[in-house]
Amino acid sequence: MGSFISNSPDETFALGRRWATEVAAGWVIGLTGDLGTGKTQLVKGIAAGLGVEATVNSPTFALLQEHDEGRLPLAHIDLYRMETQSEIVGAGLEHFLTNPDGVTAVEWFERWLTTEWQPGQLLPDSAKPSECVTLRLVVLTDEGETRRKIEYEDFGD
Q1: Domains, the chain, ordered by start
Q2: Are 138 and 29 in contact (CB under 8 A)?
Q3: From first to last of its 157 residues, what are the pLDDT tens digits of the chain?
Q4: Is the pTM of this model over 0.90?
């Protein structure tokens, strides 16, 4: 389990860049947190660290943006408009969440979980990663105008 305090969007972006050096094919980074806590900023850093040159925005209406030009393919998913796991499966997103070809970064990952999760808790069976998949669950919390607490824990390989 890890914890990071970000005092600016630039620091959140830099954390994402650092994480990009750790990831390999088969990673899912599940991001949870309220609006404005830095989920998209963190994904932008991950994308930059992977070598993605395209503009990265939250795919709230498209649900999915795929970027293949970096060191690893990056799927950026926003589940804000989804309510249940069955809706997510029906939208064709399950593969990205359970067995990604590259790296998947998922905003509003709590829509995939069947129960609320906090760092240090057991992972619900419904969200346990497949074999050869690493899941990094991330909770971003607003602690002030620009201050964010970013807690994370890795599960799987």
Answers
A1: 2-92+104-115+139-156 (3.40.50.300)
A2: yes
A3: 899 999 999 999 999 999 999 999 999 999 999 999 999 999 999 999 999 999 898 887 789 999 999 999 999 999 999 988 899 999 999 999 998 999 999 999 988 886 676 767 777 776 777 788 999 999 999 999 999 999 999 998 6
A4: yes
Q: Looking up tokens 């609006």, which residue turns up?
A: 35
- Interacting residues of 113 by C-beta distance below 8 A, sequence separation 6+: 30, 124, 126, 127
The tokens describing 89, both together, are 């499966």
C-alpha to C-alpha distance for 88 and 107, rounded to whole angstroms: 13
**120 — alpha (psi -120 to 50), left (phi > 0) or beta?**
left
Sign of the dihedral defined by the CA atoms of residues 68, 70, 71, 73, in that order: negative
Q: Please, what's the b/e burial string for 46-72 (b: 16 or more CB within 10 A of its CB; e: otherwise)?
A: bbbbbebeeebebbeeebbbebeebbb
